[in-house]
Design brief:
- The protein has 8 helices and 10 strands.
- It has 265 residues and is α/β, with parallel strands linked by helices.
- The chain has one domain: NAD(P)-binding Rossmann-like Domain (Rossmann fold), CATH 3.40.50.720.
- Strands 7-6-5-8-9-10 form a 6-stranded mixed β-sheet, with helices on both faces. It has a two-stranded antiparallel sheet with strand order 1-2. Strands 3-4 form a two-stranded antiparallel sheet.
- α2 crosses α8.
- The longest helix has 18 residues.
């Protein structure tokens, strides 16, 4: 029994977080174990019915459903994850059409989370999808993230990553941070193309430890747009222009993140 919300509740599940990930379900809990759907036969041949069953009972949050996050969401739904929580405050614009999975011209102006949910529901009736068109730092979002077995961070700003890093550490929830970057020289030539993932668990380095997060950069993100533009023109901060991106790179980063999840199962 655990004491929660001024009352005693029965424990239905214990999660073990570390080099691997394990959910132990209490035998007398109300969880009904469903048979593995035959559509997942090829996956079952990889990690067995027990592994597939674990996937089907997972709740996974994805923060940021642009090019990278939408690819993560679609892949997780296709492998049979039981519930997805999609978090993104932004709406679709034309530049998103080249990277956001399932998007069409008619989706421009709609919330990204709704566009991705609609696409997932077109091929997966069993995966539950909850959407929050909210900033991840809002008080009503964090309790939802805490319900998750694992959180994917697919945001393009450091402020959101800092929030997710704190949640992961404070609540022992594994965080898979997914990112990609194309860095160009001043003359326009490409200097570096990078896709990377970072797993944060109690026994690994956090995003601060690896210098993924930077306090000065986070402060700059909090400035008003006109302040950012002024400082960029004066050379004090990097340009506020949108970063270059392409679907082949965002999809590769997403696949690396999903494969990292499967290593934990």
């Amino acid at each position: 029994m655990v004491f929660s919300d001024s009352k005693l509740d029965a424990i239905s599940q214990v999660s073990i977080v570390g080099p691997g990930f394990e959910n132990i379900r209490v035998s007398n809990s109300s969880v009904i174990v469903e048979a593995v759907d035959s559509r997942y036969d090829r996956q079952v041949s990889i990690f067995g019915e027990e592994g597939q069953g674990m996937i089907q009972h997972m709740t996974i949050s994805i923060v940021g459903v642009g090019g990278t996050g939408s690819s993560v969401a679609v892949q997780l739904a296709r492998i049979g994850v039981g519930k997805l929580i999609l978090v993104d405050k932004d709406s679709m614009d034309k530049t998103n059409l080249t990277r956001v999975y399932g998007s069409t011209f008619g989706d421009v102006g709609l919330p990204k989370v709704d566009v991705v949910r609609k696409h997932i529901k077109s091929f997966s009736k069993k995966t539950k999808v909850e959407v929050l068109q909210r900033d991840v730092s809002k008080d009503d979002v964090i309790p939802k993230l805490i319900e998750s077995d694992i959180v994917f961070g697919c945001t393009d700003n450091l402020s959101s990553r800092a929030v997710l890093n704190d949640i992961s550490i404070q609540y022992f929830i594994p965080l898979i941070d997914v990112g990609c970057r194309i860095h160009k020289h001043p003359d326009g030539s490409i200097n570096q193309i990078l896709a990377k993932i970072h797993l944060v668990t109690p026994d690994t380095a956090c995003l601060w430890c690896t210098h993924t997060l930077d306090g000065v950069a986070i402060m700059q993100e909090s400035l008003l747009e006109n302040e950012k533009e002024k400082l960029a023109q004066e050379g004090y901060i990097e340009s506020t222009d949108k970063q270059p991106s392409i679907i082949s790179l965002t999809s590769m980063a997403a696949s690396l993140g999903v494969n990292k999840l499967l290593q934990l199962v």
